[in-house]
Amino acid sequence: MIGVQDFIRYYDWTFEYLRRHHGEAAVEAYWAESIAFNSQNHANVLIQAKGLQGMAEYWGQTLESEAAGYRAFLGEGYYRIDMYDCPSKGLLIRLGQQAYHDYCQHCMGWIRPIMDRAGFVIDHEHNHAGQCWWEMRPPTQHEPPAAPPPIRDDHDVRLRPSWRQPMHDLWLGSRPIRRQ
Amino acid sequence: MAHGDFYFTINATFYHFTERWGGQALIDYWQALGREYLQPLARQFEEGGPAEIARYWSAYFAGEPGGEVVVSQPDAGTVLIDVRACPAIRWLKESPAAALHPPVHPMYCQHCLYINQAMLEGTRYCFELQGGAGRCQQVFRLSSGGTP
């Protein structure tokens, strides 16, 4: 039986199986179609109906139940998540498993299509070490912005000593700015 | 305990394979899981014997949310997993968000059969499954000539 307790390891392995047998585009299609609007349809429904408040309801519950090390809040015109210790990437790091070459990419892979449909854009950065930040917000007339948002407060993950890693992927206005 | 909403992802993954590439592609994926990803578990079963198989599945189902499963050893070479309520099927049908997702994939129950059979290829064990739709009996049995 494929259970939920070791699901993350199956998930990572499945990304690589798809890439190996059907190509990289098939992995992205899996996230954008079947994860976003089938697996995560409960998130999709909340966010389409309630916007930023729906994000707060979805991630507040989900991250808490996954025992993630994080904080999230609804700012003025944006919803922000600072992930200090991602439970799924952290598990793979501890186990030394890396079947797929970029596990962290799957979050952007399914969240962006939902935000596109709901009329929001994403600023996001992850460091491939289980830490990332997200801001979901309505688009402005000038996308993508010239720079990431400012440090928000003392709990901003970018202030953590462990934040700076050799590889960082950055998206602004839902567009890839830097991928390493 | 892990969150049951991951069952939605497993179900969505099965739909993804069959809607794009057909049922055989899903079976191929399951068999690859058994032959590749789960080979360390096959070796664990080979080395530990039926007692280890029983211990593993008893602990595994105890770690899944909402199932009712009894694992026993009716004889020295057999492990019986009596799934009285499958945690996955229950979650997919009864959890709060179930109405927002597609129904249980029509091939869902077969993943246990194909994955375990593929995993056990080359071992002393065979795998049998009877039932489905949330209630089944799974048997790991020493093949004829095998010793516990």
Describe what you observe in this structure:
The complex is a heterodimer of chains A (about 180) and B (about 150). Helix content of chain A is about 45%, strand content about 20%. Chain A is α+β, with helices and mostly antiparallel strands and about 180 residues long. In chain A, strands 1-2-4-3-5-6 form a 6-stranded antiparallel sheet. In chain A, helix 1 crosses helix 2 (about 25-40) and helix 2 packs across helix 3 (about 40-50). Chain B is of the alpha+beta class and about 150 residues long. Chain B has one domain (about 5-140): Muramoyl-pentapeptide Carboxypeptidase, domain 2. In chain B, strands 1-2-4-3 form a 4-stranded antiparallel sheet. In chain B, a hairpin with a 2-residue loop joins strand 3 and strand 4 (about 135-140). The chains are: A alpha+beta (about 180), B alpha+beta (about 150). At the A-B interface, helix 1, helix 2 and helix 3 of A face helix 1, helix 2 and helix 5 of B.
Supply the number of helical segments of chain B: 5
Oligomeric nature of the chains: heterodimer
Helix/strand/pairing category of chain B: alpha+beta
Strand content of chain B: 15-25%
What is the CATH top level name of chain A?
Alpha Beta
The CATH architecture designation of chain B is: 2-Layer Sandwich
The CATH architecture of chain A can be named as 2-Layer Sandwich
For this structure, the CATH topology of chain B is: Muramoyl-pentapeptide Carboxypeptidase, domain 2
Number of domains of chain B: 1
- Rg of chain B over CA atoms, rounded to whole Å, is 16 Å
The proportion of strand residues of chain A reads: 15-25%
- Mean pLDDT value of chain A: 94
Task: Indicate the percent of residues in helices of chain A.
Answer: 40-55%
CATH class of chain B: Alpha Beta
Shape of chain A: globular
Q: Biggest sheet of chain B: strands, sense, closure?
A: 4 strands, antiparallel
Enumerate the spans of chain A where pLDDT stays under 50 for 5 or more consecutive residues. none
